[in-house]
Amino acid sequence: MKSSQYIRVWVFSFIYSILTGLLIQLVVLRYIFPQWNAGDGMLIGLDSSYYNGIALSLSEQMRLHGWAAWQLFPNKQVVSGISAIFYYLIAPKPWSVLPLHAFLNASACTALFYVLTMIAGEQKYLSLAILPFLLFPSALQWNAQLNNDVYSVPGVIFFITGWAGLFAFQTAGWKKNGLHLGLMAAGFGLVYLTRPYLGLPFIVLNVVLFAAYAVTWLPGLLKSFRENRAGLVWLLLLGLLMAGMLPLSQKGLLKGAGWEKRAASCTSASLEPQCHWQVSKWLPGGLDYQLKRLSMSRYMNTLEWQHGSSNLDTQVVFYNAADLIEYLPRALQISIFAPFPDAWFGSGSLASATLMRRVAGVEMLVVYVSMAGLLPGFYYFRSKRAFFVAILICGAFLLLYGLVVPNIGTIYRFRFPFLMSLVTVGMASWLHLFWMVRARAGNAPAKPGS
C-alpha cells in the first residue's frame, strides 16, 4: 500500500476529529442542546466535567506558580493532568485539547487501516472499512470530551497493530519490526496509563502471543540456526520487554478488584462471592483465585450500577469456576450484540442517554452486518496471521467485559476499540467478497446472443 494512502487516511481523520469536536463543544451543546451541557461543552452524565474542573484548578495553579505546580496525576486523573498543559499553554477551555485528541484518533484510524492491509492486502476502497470506527456517533463521547477513552482507545488499536505486524511481517527488518514493537509497547502504555486494572489481562495476552510468536520462529531456528540467529536475538529482546511489563500486572484484574481491603468479615452482603466462593480443585490455585477476583469484581460492579437503566443479568453471581464457564456464551453474546433491538427504543436515565439509545440502534445494525462478514473472513483470510491475532485480542477482551460488567451502557463504551476492530475486519471481508464476485462476473463468458 502506498504511503500516500496512509497520509490521506490520517489527514481526513484528523480534520474530521477536530471539526466534530469543535461542533459538539461550541455549537451542539451550547445552542442546540444546552440542557445537556455541564459547562464548557462537556456532556452531562459523563466524567468530562469532573476532569475539566480538575484541569482548570491545576492550570490556575500553574499560572500562579509556573511548571513546578504541574502534576501528571492530579487527584489521580491523568486526563486532567494532560489537559492542564493545554489549558495553560493555549486557553483554559476543553477545546484547546482537541488537537491532541484528533492526533490520537487519526493515528488510531491509520493504524487500524494498516491492520486491514495486513489482512486483506491492497484492496480497492479498503479505507471504507474503517469508517464505522471514525464516524460512529458514539465515538464523539470520548473524542469530543475529556475522557480516559481518548487515550485507551488508541492504545488498544496500537497494541493490536503492533502484535499483528510482528506476526504478519515476521522476517522483516529491524526498522519495520521495531515499529511494530514500539506500537505494541506504546499501546500498552496508553491503556495502562488510564486503566491500570487492565494490566493483568494485557500481560496474559502478551505471554500467550509471545509463546505463539516464538513457536513460529522455531522451525527456522531448527533448520538453520546461522541463517535465523537474528530471529533468536529478536525473540530475546521481545522477551525482555514482556518481562519488564510483568510488574505492571499487580493492580488487580479489573475495576472493583480492591474488594480484598473491604473483606473484614463475611457478614457483609456486598462480599457474597468472597464469602461463599467454592474452590475448584481441578484448577491450579492461582487461576482459581483470579477467577474469584473476577467474580467479586462483577458483584461489586453490580452493586455500583444497581440503579442503572441499562443493567442486564444483574442477578447472575459466580460462586465457582463452573458458574463462570457456563456463562461464557451469554457473556460473549452481550458484549458483542447488546444493546438488543428491544432496548433501542427505551428510555435512558438522562435525555442524552435516551438519544444515544436511538443512535445505538443504528450503530448496532452496522455491527450486525459487519460481524456477519467475519464468517467469510475466516475462509478468505485463513492464511493471514494478523487476522487471528486481531480475533484473539478483541475476542478475549469482549468476553472479559461480558463477564465482569453487568451494565450495557458501560460495556458499550469500554468495548469500543475491540468491537470496532472486529467490525472493520468484517467490513473488509465484505469488500473482499464484493470484489471477488465482481471479478468473476467480469471474467465470465458472455451469454449467447448478447
Tell me about this structure.
This protein has about 450 residues and is mostly helical. The chain has 18 helices and no strands. It has helices spanning about 5-30, 50-65, 80-90, 100-120, 130-135, 140-145, 150-170, 175-195, 200-225, 225-245, 270-275, 285-305, 320-335, 350-370, 375-380, 385-405, 410-415, 415-445. The longest helix has 30 residues, at about 5-30. The chain is globular, with a radius of gyration of 23 Å. Mean pLDDT is about 85; it is low at about 255-260 and about 445-450.
Number of alpha- plus pi-helical segments: 18
Number of strands: 0
Sheet with the most strands? none
From N to C, what is the helix and strand string? HHHHHHHHHHHHHHHHHH
Overview features:
450 residues; mainly alpha; 18 helices; 68% helix; globular; disordered C terminus
